[in-house]
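Re: your question from the hallway

Yes, I did run it. Sequences:
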Amino acid sequence: MSALLAIDGLHAGYGPAEVLRGVDLEVGPGEIVAVLGSNGAGKSTLNRAISGVVRARSGSIRFDDAAVTNHKPSAIVARGLIHVPEGRRIFPNMSVAENLDLGSYRRATARRAQNRERVFTIFPRLRERHAQRAGTLSGGEQQMLAIGRGLMAEPKLIILDEPSLGLSPQLVEQLFALIARINAEGLAVLLVEQNVMQSLDVAHRAYILENGRIVMSGSPADIRANPDLRRAYLGL
Amino acid sequence: MLSPVILIPAILNGLLTGAVYALIALGLTLIYGVLHIINFAHGALLTAALFAAYFTQKLFGIDPYLAAFALAPLFFVLGYALQRFVIGPASHGDDRNMLLVTLGLAVIIENALLYAFHADTRTIDVRYSFETIAVGGSFLALPRVIGLGAVLIVALLLWALLRLTDTGKAIRAVAKEKLGAELSGIDVAHIYAMTFGLGTACLAVAACLLIPTYYVNPHVGNAFVLVAFTIVVLGGMGSVPGALIGGLFIGVVESLSGLYLGESLGQIGIFLIFILVLLVRPSGLFGERA
Ligand SMILES: Nc1ncnc2c1ncn2[C@@H]1O[C@H](COP(=O)(O)OP(=O)(O)OP(=O)(O)O)[C@@H](O)[C@H]1O
Ligand SMILES: [Mg+2]
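Structure:
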């Protein structure tokens, strides 16, 4: 099986600071892969490097059998790799519908209505609020919109960076159910989360990132069984 | 107090002058709103556009109003190319550097024009330069009335572009949320260049509206841009309706202060307003509060 996303020896950082120091990671087609790690470990930097907004200093990133290392973000989106960033980054001055339309900016206009319908089926709340200015949505609704906007691009792989941040326990519950649901439709997911337990419940595999390096990877059962990790990340 | 017989024409004429100011400000505010820089090359590019309008009339006998249909797309392409291939790359990925690059560009363009055409002041002769039309007892200069109409059309087109087209929506998206736009697949370098092109195209139209009644020399653009900058601040940095309304308002202020203080002091009123706005409401009339 060839991986959908294959990262090899990735180095990246900001100015003089090196944040990623040789990351190797793979996501197979249809897989949910969790990346866990403490604050500042470099999880978001990894996501940014994959989506092309932070330069890779060395190493390689392949997606869908093509090298995408340091390609423009717009070209990477066009290939079907979507990054729903930390902090949602929706367009506050535009309506929910306009936000969604911009999500399919790289896709044929003809399929837009159909994609929108799919998003509205997953998030009925967005249908109700389609004319509302996105900046006035509640935090949970904004997160739905951010994910919905990502789905509008017909991705093969969606990166979700802390999607549960700021959601009520009930909404977090729904979010993880949703991740399982879009994955069941064939979409691969790279999930960065603080909710370690729930992430391990939904993921097929997980990586632990520490100080810019992968220190462990394996099945959720392996991760749960590791005594060091239990102490460091699971609080057990 | 002056009688309405003098006041009303002064206000009407102010609106007409203000329309062209508004168009120049529209370009400036659009670029500011999206790229978040003050385009220091705006004045020099206006001068270049005035020369272009001047020479198309002088050399080819093409009426400036007709020339606008060719010069606007031409300057759009010029602006696009400048941002895409000069300003953008020269900024090395740091948007703040773009401001310095536009400053450098202004110096280069002005000096090139000075070298090519010397400091001479030039004008064109068109038969309608001094034609007037009577509106409710006031006599208004025909070229200025045409100018107001043209500016309203351009503003409407720009509004439609920003509201209704994918590119326009992408421009608004980049303006407010650059990272979110990038991650949605919007090519930010392209959108920056589109915006710069649109701003520069506004200057080409403004130049074609100005040249029948105005003159051109290698420095002429700067005076307009100083006024346009006041309008952008008054209307709210980055606000398109603010630039339009602010432009018309500033035109009236200039006309009235010229009336009360004398022609040569007309612009003093503008700068008093500028300072007043900065003191009282720095975010401008339509700007969002910081
Ligand atoms: N734009 C930036 N400029 C400079 N340093 C940055 C920038 N963004 C992140 N960093 C630094 O890089 C390191 C990794 O940050 P990153 O955001 O990738 O961590 P993270 O694992 O996502 O953390 P968190 O769980 O808090 O979101 C941190 O030390 C951070 O301070
Ligand atoms: Mg993070």
